[in-house]
Amino acid sequence: GDIVAYNEFGELLCYGRIDNQIKFKGHRIELGEIEAVLNSHEKIKNSACIFKDDKLIAFYESEEELDLKGFCKQKLPPYMIASSFVRVEKFALNANGKIDRKVLSEWV
User: 14 in a domain, yes or no?
Assistant: First the structure.
């Protein structure tokens, strides 16, 4: 399946496929759900989450540093809140034009 949401204009936005699932703190987490919440923030252009060394790390593309922990706490259960939030100026893309998650893993 796909992760989709309506924006404020009633347009349907597709955030990706539901296939990037992890098990963290005894819960199954779809990383795309966290990314969809982050992407709903007005100052975030794009986001990606990875799971590394038993930590959930959220990367976001924005022109400024943002306090996202409080924003996510309003929209996600506690076990889905990232351990850290990392701002990037621009995501590295793979040959298919998608965010290169391997590069993100090297950045932390």
Answer: no
